[in-house]
Amino acid sequence: MSKKYSVAVVGATGAVGREMLKTLEKRNFPVGSLKLLASARSVGKTFMFKGDEYFVEELTENSFAGVEIALFSAGGNISKKFAPLAVKAGAVVVDNTSAFRMDSEVPLVVPEVNPEDIFNHKGIIANPNCSTIQMVHALKPLHNYGRIRRVVVSTYQAVSGAGLKAVEELLEESQAVLNNKSYERKIFPHQIAFNALPRIPQSGGIEDGGYTNEELKMVNETKKILHDDSIEVTATCVRIPVVRSHSESVNVETEKHITVDMARKLLSETPNIVVVDCLEKEEYPLAATASDRDETFVGRIREDKTVKYGLNLWIVSDNLLKGAALNSVQIAEVLISKK
Ligand code: A2P
User: Most buried in the list 6, 245, 257, 280, measured by CB within 10 Å?
Assistant: First the structure.
């Protein structure tokens, strides 16, 4: 009989944790035993997995005895404290927070881009930032072919990236605005309903030069995943009133000429990328149709004639799946494929 694994999901009640459970089930990950961990607030809640009911347990220092694979998505501080304890107990951690992403001892992996890095882990493997994952997924084949020199990206990010409470806030505030009622915000610093916020506050502080952490994650993580510090990336990250799936406008400058047809071909040949690009038929990637889908969708592929060799792309993917839960489970799949 093939091996089954003892799996823990930390943050199982959250926006990403719930998708991790669904993804493990959907992809038939060889789960032998399953532990659902969250805060004391959630003890007693239940979730179904493959027809069985599982109770949520409180995350404690002793939660990881016997656990072989731990998927973390309960915030950076929880990962910083508990991931090393999980490793000490013998688990391999796939961490969906930013806690360890830039640690030189921790691989940062998108399985379609740098799967080989997974095997350099010392107990923790980091899942990149959601906006970075879908971008590098599409950039990799273009970089292999024409060497990317510079990337200018603007994101249009869904609120679910800030958790279930942020989704609630968008829905409730939208109702309030439509009914001309006041609304007391708890998550966003400004109205998110019918608005665009040019700052992702949940990602942390403001860094040098006024860039936000989310923007710097896109800069630094791209270089680490593509193993190329020479790629210049500049980002503007914006939260928009969409529940699910991030969209990105990406401008790329390359060393070698990449025609639109070649870009389409390279992208179409990349696993889990779907090119949706026919303006005449009004076909382009959309957040609404990318939601609940595993792939990264790319369209609006145009040459940028203002530079020697440039391309414009529109990249959309489900931030909770490829941007988080699915990518984490894919990492675990590659990990066990060698055992
Ligand atoms: P809980 O539901 O018990 O608060 P989201 O990103 O949707 O906000 O979800 C965050 C996840 O992190 C939830 O599963 C949440 O559990 C979990 N979490 C938050 N704080 C803690 C904590 N102190 N200990 C364990 N899990 C936590």
Answer: 245
A 10 A CB-CB count for 275 gives 21
pLDDT tens digits, one per residue of 228-284: 999 999 999 999 999 999 999 999 999 999 999 999 999 999 999 999 999 999 999
Output the pLDDT for position 34: 98
Per annotation, catalytic residue among 121, 130, 143, 237: 130
What is the domain extent for residue 269?
132-319
Q: What are 108's strand-pairing partners?
A: 126
CATH number at residue 152: 3.30.360.10
Spatial neighbors of 101 by CB under 8 A, at least 6 apart, are 108, 126, 128, 129, 217, 221, 224
CATH number at residue 15: 3.40.50.720
Question: Is position 227 annotated as part of the catalytic site?
Answer: no
Mean of per-residue pLDDT scores for the chain: 97
Among protein residues, the one with the nearest Cα to ligand 1's atom 20 is: 39
- Per-residue pLDDT of 80-119, as tens digits, reads 999 999 999 999 999 999 999 999 999 999 999 999 999 9
- Residues having CB closer than 6 A to ligand 1 are 11-15, 17, 38-39, 41-42, 59, 74-75, 78, 163-165
